[in-house]
Target: Electron transporter RnfE
Amino acid sequence: MKRLLSTPLSLLGLAPLLGASDLLVKALGLALAGLPVLAGFGLLLSLTYTRISGTAYWLAALLSACTLVSCADLLMQAFAFELHRALGPFLALLILPCLQLTLGEPQRPSTGLTLGLIFALCALLLGALRETLGSGTLFARMDWLFGQNAAHWQLDLAHFSGLQLFAHASGAFILLGLLLAGGRRLFTVKIDHS
Model:
């Protein structure tokens, strides 16, 4: 049963990553929220796994994920309201990568931190690529996160206005596929059978 549920849920865990990475600032906001949420959830999960089992474990995991995501949502709303509005429902979808951790074997406390770092790195990489290829800019709308002083940080690529495909979710899927293929090619160790 866990194996059947794990594949669709791990794909659903990509929803906030793919949906909110059209601008680097949105990806940065998602990374800044996702990293502590996933790290905290991994720690809470490792503490509760040995004490609670069965249905109570799943309810505790869901409650913990919802609490951490709600705290991140309120902090983002308080300190970066424009970015919070731009992220829309994708901030709440951080619950999905959290629940992805519950499907595996018992986790170490550092598993959530590791997943959070991978999530943040992927978000930043996708955000930078999608903004550059999709609109021909970089660091656009940084004032949403860093205030009015960051309004002039935007870099425009000379003679390139972007390809709209990469600004949409379909472009995110294409770029993520290329990144996964490149990462697999880069990190696969060849075994010599001689």
Q: What stands out?
A: The first helix runs from residue 2 to 12. The first strand starts at residue 137 and ends at 138.
